[in-house]
Amino acid sequence: MRFTPSLLEEIKARLPVSEVVRKRVQLKKSGREFSGLSPFTQEKSPSFFVNDQKMAWFDFSSGQNGNIFDFVMRTEGLTFPEAVERLAAEAGVALPKSTPENIEREKKRATLQEVLELSAKFFEEQLQARGGAKARGYLAGRGMGASVQKQFRLGYAPDEKFALRDYLAGKGATAETMIEAGMLIHGEDIAVPYDRFRDRVMFPICDRSGKVIAFGGRALEKDVPAKYLNSPETPLFHKGSVLYNHHNARKAAHDANGQVIAVEGYVDVIAMTGVGFGNVVASCGTALTPDQCELLWRMAEEPILCFDGDKAGRKAAYRAIDTALPLIGPGKSLRFAFLPDGQDPDDLARSGGQEAVAAVLTASRPLAEVLWTRESEAGPLDTPERRAALERRLDTIVRSIADETLRRYYLDEMRARLNDLLGPRRGGGRAPFQPGQRRGATGRAQGGRFQPPGTPQGYRFQSPGVSSGIAKSVLFTRTGGIPAREATILLLLANHPDLLARHIEDLAGLECTSKDAGRLRDALAALAADRLESDIEVRAALNDMGLAGDLHKAEAMVGVSSVWVLKPEAALEDAEVALQQALVLHRRALALNRELKSAELALAEDATEENVARLREIQSELSTIDGREAALEGFGFMSGRLGRAV
After folding, report:
1. What are the φ and ψ backbone dihedral angles of 51, each rounded to 5 degrees?
2. Cα–Cα distance for residue pair 59/521, rounded to 1 Å
3. CATH dotted code for 241-372
4. What is the CATH number of domain 100-237?
């Protein structure tokens, strides 16, 4: 099997080195790195170090170093293909078979990359030629002289319709390849495809390894409809998954004590690099995306988002909050730096230099503070209704945080800020909550159990549990083995192997509550790369792995013989609908049960009406997840088992 560089890079990008290594080495955080005892030699003092930013590990006691593939090969005795397959399964990356189609696809990718590299060289040459004088003048006026032009490979696209096309054709490139690479404009009403970029300063966009995958072009004339024009989406370029200058900023971020700065424009990146901040990246013409957040967090725990000091800059910062909140967790947050009104990073760098930029970055604010500012300053708070609306908004927004512990701290933080802003809100005059202070419950204890306020004397309060319907369903009545919903998901994939490749990420991220289910999940994820064609092949492979017994447990849990959609002969479209519904229900049920525990703790510490209401709200939502009520799109749990709704 041939593993392409792009595939290996994708696996490395998804699996931090520390995550792979700590399965065999006990690691401790040591500054920007992790340290531990060498797995290759006997030692008492740590000489083994892991650096996630560099995607590498270093063992000074044995003189070895490498990446995640090297580590698995040397600690587990695997061959390189075996290590790639193992780690690809952990990363949720499907390995393509070495089919003629895949070989052809990789050849096409290589050809596209070659065309883009030739285009970059053409633009560089044109910038330095006589026709590039205007572009050189523009760049010099922005403080980007010859050395900067060379460092960032800046170029110029001539004001001609066929200059690049003819150049690439002379190098053997076909018109179809130029179109697929995004360098030509074409269409049904265009007789002859022509150059996409004309009379523009050109900024090459590179992938993590420094290969050109796209371009951004800045118009030199004022009356052009698009001041900045980016390459379209291509097989190599997905703008929401790329950061401009990423390949340079990775090392610079490590050298800057694990700090990275994100700005909005290419020129901003270059200007800040010019005054000593090489750890700067920019989005490629998009608002911040979840994929870009993950790229930033691989370089730094708290990237600084630097926004213009105008209304548009503040609006962009607020959009970034909504994107990042569901993703944040311990070691994964953001800070926000706002520039003086009317300035962008380029203006500030050229007018104030390194000192002015450093001052703005030093004054950056944490995400929680900017979130509070956004909501509390959204409108007047002069009526009870408006104050209640603020409280409700904050509660709803904060509950989008997936990490349970962090969500709880954010709720406490926002409640503390509300108390500081509005004062005690209830007649009892309870003092404002201070962060770090344990709340005194206003309920009473009875026989060691917490009693909410207003509980009649002699009545024992019981924490809400699941509904009687759920308690009697197959999801709760059968003990041991594989839970029914997990069994349903795994059997849908085992009996319909075409779904494995489509849903490999769902499978890799499936949270299993039993070891049996976990083993089946990992085995099926490994088999996804083999592109097996029938359930018979899947069962044979599982049998070879010694997992036939686990598969039988899953089948016994849901009764496959009476569940038509689980059978191999069921229509693939129906099986996929059932799979998607089961995944949604499974994730929501797990999340609700975690929230239930959190709500019970919150109620025990602070017996407010809001906490009681929240507990009842979770109880009500849990009731709706009763399998017998999940009859969506023609499927449901009938008599405790999945069947067609009638």
Report:
1. -130, 110
2. 33
3. 3.40.1360.10
4. 3.90.980.10
Instruction: Say how many residues make up the chain.
Output: 646
> Could you give the residue range(s) of every CATH 3.40.1360.10 domain in the chain?
241-372
252-261, 275-284, 392-401, 410-419: least confident range: 252-261
> CATH 3.90.580.10 occupies which residues in the chain?
5-91
Q: Pull the structure tokens for residue 543.
A: 């049998």
Q: Are 68 and 85 in contact (CB under 8 A)?
A: no
Q: For the chain, what is the radius of gyration of the CA atoms?
A: 29
Bridging pattern class, strands 155-157 and 64-66: unpaired
Q: What's the token pair of residue 602?
A: 């919150």
Could you tell me where in the chain the CATH 3.90.980.10 domains are found? 100-237
Residue 499's nearest CA partner among 574, 551, 557, 552 is 574
- Structural tokens at position 80: 């390189």
Give CA separation, 608 vs 390, 440, 602, 614, 620, in Å: 18, 11, 9, 10, 19
pLDDT surpasses 90 at 196: yes
Burial class (CB in 10 A: 0-12, 13-18, 19+), 517: buried
> CA-to-CA distance for 325 and 463, rounded, in angstroms?
29
Using DSSP bridges, classify how beta strands 444-446 and 449-451 pair: parallel, antiparallel or unpaired.
Answer: antiparallel
**What's the rounded mean pLDDT across residues 291-311?**
90
Q: Which CATH superfamily hosts domain 5-91?
A: Zinc finger, CHC2-typedomain (3.90.580.10)
Report the mean per-residue pLDDT for the chain. Answer: 81
